[in-house]
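Field reference: sequence -> structure
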Amino acid sequence: MTNTRISELPSSLSELDNLNMLILSHNAIVGIPEVIFRIKYLRVLRLSASITSIPDDIASLNNLVELSLVNNHLKELPLSLSMLRMLDIIDLSQNEFTGFPDVITKMVNLGTIRISGNQLHSVPDLAALSNLRGIDLSDNPISKISGLSHLKYINLMHTLVTQSTVDELLNSGVSVHY
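Structure field:
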């Protein structure tokens, strides 16, 4: 349901037992409707252009593999997000983060993090995220990164990361887009 004037979701949505992907982008829905948290087998959730916060109920989506919250107004994430043990991909691009969300460092099963187009100045050491394959940090004023040499790919386009840091990553076998 993208580019519609829909402003709310029917409660019967949670009765769709085979619903495993829900895309709500560029519509009149404000916030995350409660009915979403009752969709048992939801694996992919994409919400954009209307979210300012994530409720703790997000933890009830325990089958979620991909969560895309692109182009919203998020500044922080709830700790309950770390309860999503199946989550492989999180996309937080084009939000209002000024610091790297702490909860992400606790999400040990993540394979891909996309957090481009925010206002991040640094990234914490993510070596503990042993399943992490790649991260997109493009379009952030980042100048300092560490603990990323275990990754397969990093996007550093339009950042302030130095050439020596890029060279170190390349020498450790990371594919770097810069």
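Note: Residues 7 and 28 are 4 Å apart (CA to CA).
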